[in-house]
């Protein structure tokens, strides 16, 4: 479970911003809460981020994505490899300052705090704390790149630190070297944090296909979700078909392998057939097969999401989605959100975070006030501010959508009245 995420000096984010899934004292929509003894307050099952174009919504998602990728891959860096570093560009001072991330999460009923600061050349600071038996303890602390402090397993950790390059995260390298105290935190990034970008990606459809064929129970869950979404689909089959590459010109063969090959280097294509139930003139049931490409863009989008959606709910993952509303009807958005907010569907405390422009979701019958967040570009600094609706303390009977569009909470574009022609 995610508790909090802090970001500083990353893309449009200049000063530190905090995104929190810690619930406020708001008494509404009790089902939207995760109740746990591991933190003082309840946690939120979901949160939505609004904001004008170029206000920084996607940069919050990209910050999560960059941290996840660094943790998962930095142990593979060679000496001198450059780190993906994107400082705030509108203040020259920040171009030489490190980017800073800190994340607080729960893995296997233990709370962790992990933080890093870095520039293009090296990791500057890094630390990992955890709370065994509810008390804070240090696993490791790293300052000025190579100045480490350990309070447990000192000899083992000292050996690992001496094998950690300046541009490599100690969390990643120590896990690679089988140090169990960091492995749990590493596994949270790898197994419990999923991120979906705004653009459609074939890998999402592939993931759903794999889940459909994983076992009959998973197929049943996915098919039931598609039926509940009222897409007209009654059944489906999906698999991968091997493709012969003998007749493909050598010049493009390797490029194709990089795009559509499986783990063994074989070319393959996705074969998806949907089945729709119809009634003939006599009222008798009939079933008609459709190729996946004949389905609507909204159906394709939902199919691409649903595998990861069901898997996240089943395994209690944190799922972050940029522009959830892309190609989806408003009611399909609500359908997907309610799967996370409903404790009878979300039994393993999965969490959903997403960005959207769909103001119809600004409804206090769907979200609590502390679940609604905004990004706004600071007009004097050009930097992103991130804040929650709860800061405005609107009454529970307020029309939040109307107030947002009227500019009461900021985070909307300021469009001039001047004529273009």
Describe the overall structure.
This protein is of the alpha+beta class and 421 residues long. The chain has two domains: 298 residues, Rossmann fold; 114 residues, no CATH class. It contains ten helices and 18 strands. The strands form four sheets. It has a seven-stranded antiparallel beta sheet. A six-stranded mixed beta sheet has the order 11-15-16-5-17-18, with helices on both faces. It has a three-stranded antiparallel beta sheet with strand order 12-13-14.
Continuous helix count: 10
How many discrete domains?
A: 2
**Mean pLDDT across every amino acid position:** 91
CATH class descriptor of the largest domain: Alpha Beta
User: Can you tell me the residue ranges where pLDDT is under 50 for at least 5 consecutive residues?
Assistant: none
Describe the strand arrangement of the main beta sheet, using strand numbers: 2-1-6-7-8-9-10
Label the structural class: alpha+beta
* SSE sequence, one letter per element: EEEEEHEEEEEHHHEHHEHEEHEHEEEH
Rg, Å, rounded? 24 Å
What's the end-to-end separation, in Å?
52 Å
Question: What is the overall silhouette?
Answer: globular
Our estimate of the beta-strand percent is 25-35%
Major sheet, described briefly? 7 strands, antiparallel
Give the helix proportion (percent range). Answer: 25-40%
């Amino acid at each position: 479970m995610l508790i909090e995420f802090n970001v500083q000096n990353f893309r449009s984010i200049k000063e530190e911003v905090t995104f929190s899934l810690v619930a406020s004292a708001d008494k509404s929509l009790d089902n939207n809460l995760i109740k746990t003894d591991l933190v003082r307050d309840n946690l939120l099952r979901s949160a939505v981020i609004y904001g004008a174009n170029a206000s920084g919504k996607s940069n919050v998602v990209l910050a999560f994505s960059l941290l996840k990728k660094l943790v998962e891959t930095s142990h593979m860096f060679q000496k001198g490899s450059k780190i993906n570093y994107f400082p705030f560009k509108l203040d020259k001072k920040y171009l030489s300052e490190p980017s800073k991330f800190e994340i607080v999460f729960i893995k296997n009923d233990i709370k962790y705090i992990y933080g890093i600061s870095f520039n293009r050349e090296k990791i500057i600071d890094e630390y990992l704390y955890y709370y065994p038996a509810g008390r804070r303890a240090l696993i490791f602390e790293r300052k000025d790149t190579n100045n480490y402090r350990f309070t447990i397993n000192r000899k083992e950790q000292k050996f690992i630190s001496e094998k950690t390059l300046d541009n490599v995260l100690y969390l990643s390298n120590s896990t690679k070297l089988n140090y169990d105290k960091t492995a749990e935190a590493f596994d949270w990034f790898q197994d419990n944090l999923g991120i979906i970008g705004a653009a459609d990606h074939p890998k999402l459809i592939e993931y759903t296909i794999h889940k459909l064929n994983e076992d009959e129970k998973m197929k049943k869950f996915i098919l039931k979700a598609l039926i509940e979404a009222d897409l007209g689909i009654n059944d489906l089959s999906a698999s991968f078909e091997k493709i012969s590459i003998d007749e493909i010109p050598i010049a493009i063969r390797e490029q194709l392998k990089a795009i559509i090959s499986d783990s063994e280097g074989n070319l393959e294509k996705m074969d998806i057939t949907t089945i729709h139930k119809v009634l003939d003139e006599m009222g008798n049931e009939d079933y008609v097969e459709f190729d996946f490409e004949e389905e609507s863009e909204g159906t394709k989008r939902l199919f691409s999401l649903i595998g990861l959606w069901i898997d996240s709910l089943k395994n209690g993952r944190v799922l972050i989605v940029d522009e959830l509303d892309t190609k989806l009807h408003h009611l399909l958005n609500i359908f997907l959100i309610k799967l996370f907010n409903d404790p009878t569907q979300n039994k393993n405390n999965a969490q959903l975070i997403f960005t959207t422009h769909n103001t119809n979701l600004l409804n206090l019958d769907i979200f609590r006030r502390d679940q609604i967040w905004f990004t706004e570009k600071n007009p004097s600094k050009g930097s992103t501010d991130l804040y929650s609706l709860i800061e405005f303390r609107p009454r529970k009977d307020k029309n939040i959508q109307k107030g947002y569009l009227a500019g009461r909470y900021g985070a909307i574009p300021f469009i001039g009245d001047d004529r273009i022609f």
